[in-house]
Amino acid sequence: MSEIKFAVLGQYFHCPTKGDFEYAQQALIQVNNQGTIVSVTTETDADFQAQVSTLSSNNQLIELSSTQYLMPGMVDLHVHAAQFPQAGKGLDLPLYDWLQDYTFPLEAKFADMDFTKQIYPSLVKSLLANGTTSAVYFATIHKDSSVELARECLKQGQRGFVGKVNMDEASQCPPFYIEASTADALVETEDFIQQVLALEGNEQQLVSPVLTPRFVPSCTSEMLQGLGELAQKYQCHVQTHCSESDWARDYSQQMYGKTDAEIYRDFGLMTNKTILAHSIFLTPADHAIIKETGASIAHCPLSNMYFANAAMQTREILDNELKCGLGSDLAGAPIPSIFHTCLDAVNHSRVREDGTSTYLAADTRGESGSRISFLESYWMATVGGGQAIDAKVGLFQPGFEFDALVVDTAVSDSNIFIIDEMDSAKDKLEKIITLNNRQNICKVWVKGQLVIEK
C-alpha cells in the first residue's frame, strides 16, 4: 500500500446510487501519494479514533469545521474554452446570429498565441474555483493554441480533456474560420494527440486529447472518416454535438439519410469514450446505439433553453440507463458552474413536465412524468460525468481518485443558510446544490493535489 499523504476528517456527501445519496457526519478519508483514496472510515469503526490521533500527530490531518462539507469534484462534460470571453453576451439572439456575430470571429482570434495565453489561464482558474475538477473542452481549429489549453490545465492541476476542433465543410463554415484542407487538418489532429500525450509533467495522463468534429454539418465525410480512423488508432476520447437542433437533425437526414448517432457510429466515432453534447432529438434507435456502444450524453440544460427550441429527454435517458452527465456549454450558457447546471437541469425538466402554453388545459400542456430530482442532477454532475470521462472520480470510495471540494456554508455573503434542527441531510445537500456560489468553495483537490485554497 502506498504511503498516506494526508487525510480529511469531517462530514461528506456523495451519490453512489442514482437518485439517492449518502451522508457521513464524521468520516475519515485517507489519500495516498498517488492521489487515490485508500480508506474511508467513520465513527462506528473500531480504530477510528486511533487513526485520527496518529494522523494528527503526524501533521497529516485536515479537519473540517461543522459548517464545511466535503463533496466530490464536479465534472463538466462540455465547455467551449474559446468562448469564455463572450460569456453573457448576445444570448437573446437566434443561434445563427449568435455564432456569426460573436462565436466564430472570437474563435478565429485563437490563431494568435498571445491572445490564447491571455484567455486560457483565467478560464481554467474560473472553472476550478467553481469546483470543476474535470472539464471536457472544445478548443479551436488551431493546433498550437489547443495544445496550450492542455498545457494550462496541466499547469493548474485540472483534469482536462482537450480537443482541437475540426470543421472543413466550406458550405457551413465561415471563410475566415475553416481548416486549410481536410488532409492537413487530419495530420495536425494526429500531431495534436501526440503532443498532448507527451506534455512534460503529463506522465500520469491528467490531461488527455479528445477528437472533436464540431458537428455533422461542419465536417465533410472525408473528415469524419479520418477522425474515426484516429479514434480507433489512439483509443482516445471523442466529443461532438449530436442532434442539438431541428436544423442539425434535418441536415443529417438530407445529406446522409441517417441520424447523427448513426453517422458517428458508421464512421467509427461512437465508442465508450464518446461524449455527445445536447442530444435533444434522439430516436429510439439512437438510444439503442448509444447504449450498445457505451457512449455518453452531455446534458446542457441552460443552453438548450436558449438555442435548442426543445427539451432533452432527460427522464427517458436516465430511465433507459444511458450514460449521462452535465455540461455547462460555456458560453452557450454563461455560468461556469456545474452546481448551477444541476439547478438548470431540474428546472429544464420541470418546464418540460408542466408545459408553457396557457391556452391548453393543465393536464395537456406538458409531458407528464418527465421531471428529474436534484439528487439525479447531482449524480449526473459527479458519478455520471466520471463514467463519461472513463475516470474513477465522483465518489468517496477506496480506489477512486481524490477529486474533491470543500463547501463552507458560513463564509461571508453566503446564500446558503442551514439550520441543523430544521434541515435534514437531504435538505442540506439540496441547499448546497441550489444556493452554492464560487465564494462557498474554499478548497479544491484534483488527484490528491490541492489546487484551490481560500
Description:
By secondary structure, the chain is an alpha/beta fold. 37% of the residues lie in helices and 22% in strands. It is built from 14 helices and 16 strands. The protein has helices spanning 48-57, 95-108, 113-129, 143-156, 182-197, 221-234, 246-256, 260-266, 284-293, 301-307, 314-319, 338-354, 374-388, 425-435, and strands spanning 4-14, 22-32, 37-42, 61-63, 68-72, 74-80, 132-138, 159-166, 207-213, 237-242, 274-278, 296-299, 323-326, 404-408, 441-446, 449-453. Strands 1, 2, 3, 4, 5, 14, 15 and 16 form an eight-stranded mixed β-sheet that branches. An eight-stranded parallel β-sheet has the order 6-7-8-9-10-11-12-13. Strand 15 (441-446) and strand 16 form a beta hairpin. Helix 4 runs parallel beside helix 5 (182-197), helix 5 packs parallel to helix 6 (221-234) and helix 12 (338-354) crosses helix 13. The chain is globular.
Question: How is the topology of this model organized?
Answer:
Elements: E1 4-14, E2 22-32, E3 37-42, H1 48-57, E4 61-63, E5 68-72, E6 74-80, H2 95-108, H3 113-129, E7 132-138, H4 143-156, E8 159-166, H5 182-197, E9 207-213, H6 221-234, E10 237-242, H7 246-256, H8 260-266, E11 274-278, H9 284-293, E12 296-299, H10 301-307, H11 314-319, E13 323-326, H12 338-354, H13 374-388, E14 404-408, H14 425-435, E15 441-446, E16 449-453
Parallel strand pairs: 1-4, 1-5, 6-7, 7-8, 8-9, 9-10, 10-11, 11-12, 12-13
Antiparallel strand pairs: 1-2, 2-3, 5-14, 14-15, 15-16
Helix pairs in contact: 3-4, 4-5, 5-6, 8-9, 12-13, 12-14
